[in-house]
Amino acid sequence: MEILINVILLAFLAITALSLAFAKDLFASVMFTGIYSLLSAAFFVLMDAVDVAFTEAAVGAGISTILMLTTITMTGRYENEKRYHPKIALIVVVITGIMLIFGTVDMPAFGADTAPAQVHVAPYYIMQSGEDIDIPNIVTSVLASYRGFDTFGEVVVVFTALIGVLGLLEFSRKGSELGNRPAPMFQHKVLRIVSKILIPAIMLFALYVQFHGEYSPGGGFQAGVIFASSIILYAMLFGVEQARKAVSMPVTKILAALGVLIYGSVGVVSMLNGGNFLNYSVLAENDITGQHVGIIIIELGVGITVATAMILIFLTFARRIGKNSEETA
């Protein structure tokens, strides 16, 4: 049965990819991309990579689809045929595909027990994670502790992307400020009533994912995206300006930087206590308690930065869309 499900999902992935390649409508392309991410998340679940599936569903199928749809409203729904060169794109894809296939020739078979990752890396994490960190979720141990410096770099990348968006759109805007126009879906009372019920539940679930990542799939990245989705839902139904007032844009910008600062400060404090950068073992009287304290704090920093970055990026894009639509009118 598991093999049958894998074959069906793989067939759906192939069909979705081909449909995406031949789609002329950018809206359809975004929808196919979201479907592909959702199918990939299902695949990750079958491979017991639940944390990766969680991230793919929240980021790939969720927030990324919303941001791409927002971008389409600014750029137009259809491609500019004069600038579209399918033959050049096909040549690039074919050459890249051949190089990727050639690169896999020397790789070990998928799932092979003799693969370097299975022989040299995985055994240590599996056998020593409980003794070193003492939390049930090994994925959190790897991401937040063993490779905490790499995760710190990912948070910095998110913050840098936010700075780029604000630099291109927020700080360079022209014209008058957007008025308190009602949102396009404001007239749908059922949606507004249901959203008022769902938004608190979404925020509560985000907090659960944030502080329960040591024991189940989750963590700062997933929690941040889930929390941001509640604010985005509010903006879509009640208006961008209302959302900007509700979340206080100046405070949100400060929090985006504060999350990165919290993460980096944990490393600095570790060094001041005589340890290496992001070595949480020196943060408490014993190593295990120090690991727990460090993971909780840095995950909080990740969640704050990711949530505020997603909120700011969406609201900045959405506000520019409203300004462009007013100027067009």
Automatic annotation (TrEMBL):
Domain of life: Bacteria
Keyword Transmembrane in annotation: yes
Any Pfam family the entry gives: MbhE
Principal location class: membrane
Transmembrane segments: 88-105, 151-169, 190-209, 221-240, 252-272, 292-315
GO cellular component: plasma membrane
Protein keywords: Cell membrane, Membrane, Transmembrane, Transmembrane helix
Residue stretches making up the MrpA C-terminal/MbhE domain: 107-175
Location(s) in or outside the cell: Cell membrane
Topology class, membrane: Multi-pass membrane protein
Matching Gene3D superfamilies: NADH-ubiquinone/plastoquinone oxidoreductase chain 6, subunit NuoJ
InterPro entries: CPA3_antiporter_subunitB (IPR050622), MnhB (IPR007182), MrpA_C/MbhD (IPR025383), MrpA_C/MbhE (IPR046806), Nuo/plastoQ_OxRdtase_6_NuoJ (IPR042106)
Keyword Flavoprotein part of the UniProt annotation: no
Domain Na+/H+ antiporter MnhB subunit-related protein as annotated: residue spans: 190-311
Domain spans labelled MrpA C-terminal/MbhD: 11-75
Recorded family membership: Belongs to the CPA3 antiporters (TC 2.A.63) subunit B family.
Name the record gives this protein: Cation:proton antiporter
Species the sequence originates in: Kangiella spongicola
Lineage: Bacteria, Pseudomonadati, Pseudomonadota, Gammaproteobacteria, Kangiellales
